Amino acid sequence: MSSRTSGLKVLFTQVCDTLARSGLDVASVGDGDGTGLRVRQEAEAVAVGWVPTAELDPVGRPDADFEGIRSALRQALLEILSQVGYVVQADPPRGEVRVLPDHDPGPLPAGE
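RE: above sequence
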């Protein structure tokens, strides 16, 4: 395993931990459910996105894109992750936030 891959695995874990400490329910893309806040490791970054649940659109409208919710969550993710010290980029076409391995914020002080 390369040091880059190892570093991204550590970053993935840190991002999940940071979001959980912020009060967000986080699931890995590999967890199977496919809905909610999803975190996945890419080749060069860790991506965080959101997939709506069926409860938000019980009728199953084909035009229900939830862009307002995605935008608000994207902004919240950018704020949370950048304030902790991560280098983050918004990826609006994919509706995600990418966390780059350019900076390690280290552990948060207890109670935060």
